[in-house]
Specification:
Elements lengths: L2 H4 L8 E5 L3 H7 L4 H22 L3 E8 L7 H24 L2 E6 L7 H13 L6 E9 L1 H17 L10 H6 L11 E4 L18 E4 L9 H12 L9 H6 L1
Bound molecules: 3-methylbut-3-enyl trihydrogen diphosphate (2 copies) and magnesium ion (MG).
Length: 248
């Protein structure tokens, strides 16, 4: 069966977020170093960005490095940062050719300066593209992001620009890194782990979750299409009853 053909073009999530997990275990299974798994994971990124373009997913957020990942052995962190710079500079022409616009969320200033520069260059070069917006979550954690938002709001209250009683969820959203993107309708996590690991806690409030045992370096277009098909088979009720939904 051609999975892509089975997808309903009228019900494509606008935004898909992915926790790309399992690189280390994949490498171990091959008798290789964990870093090898991270390198292989780049091929999956390329495929999934392309798959988004093919079916019309407009935003793809990839969890590439969490705040907590800084606690990994220094060798691994250094290798990941190097891989990031190398990948971004190597892939930029390809992103441009496919009309992909690059964006980033997270504590970007905590990244090595070379990473920040490559990232900014690629963001600038791809700024006018409009097929898929690829959002890399780098040195990202949701608690970090929400804490910053709360600080911004508290500052406005302190300065007398905002009354505490006037604060709504819109104020919190406005100060999140993701404020210019719609919330993801679908979140995918690979490698069989069933947790959210400090990823987009606010934004995933009503997202559909899809978990697969496939390790990230093995995750290919058909795996992605399977996730989309699973999404399309769900009833999103947003607190209402099934009857209310089917009447609309
Ligand atoms: C995901 O793979 C990539 C990053 C977190 C950077 P892991 O490195 O977490 O791989 P496992 O989970 O140890 O197999
Ligand atoms: C989550 O994966 C972060 C990324 C994919 C970048 P981890 O492998 O770090 O998550 P935990 O620690 O196992 O939950
Ligand atoms: Mg992991």
């Amino acid at each position: 069966m051609d999975l892509k053909q089975s997808i309903n073009k009228n019900n494509i999530p606008q935004h898909v977020a992915i926790i790309m997990d399992g690189n280390g275990r994949w490498a171990k299974q091959q008798g290789e170093d964990r870093i090898f798994g991270h390198h292989e994971g780049v091929n999956s990124v390329r495929e999934i960005v392309e798959a988004c373009g093919e079916i019309g997913v407009k935003y793809l957020t990839l969890y590439a490095f969490s705040t907590e990942n800084w606690n990994r052995p220094k060798d691994e962190v250094d290798a990941l940062m190097e891989l990031l710079v190398a990948t971004i500079s190597m892939e930029t022409p390809n992103l441009n050719k496919k009309g992909v616009k690059l964006q980033a969320i997270g504590d970007i200033k905590s990244l090595p300066v070379s990473c920040q520069q490559e990232l900014q260059d690629s963001i600038d070069i791809t700024a006018n593209n409009n097929t898929v917006t690829l959002i890399l979550a780098l040195s990202y954690s949701s608690k970090w992001e929400i804490t910053n938002s709360v600080k911004e709001i508290a500052k406005q209250v302190e300065e007398g620009k905002l009354k505490a009683s006037d604060i709504t969820s819109k104020h919190i959203e406005k100060h999140l890194n993701t404020n210019i993107f719609p919330d993801p309708e679908l979140m995918i996590r690979t490698s069989g782990e069933h947790r959210i690991s400090n990823f987009l806690l606010w934004q995933l409030a009503y997202a559909e979750f899809y978990f697969t045992d496939t390790l990230w370096p093995d995750f290919r277009k058909d795996d992605f299409f399977k996730a989309i098909l699973s999404y399309q088979n769900r009833e999103r009720r947003f607190g209402k009853t099934s009857d209310q939904i089917s009447k609309n």
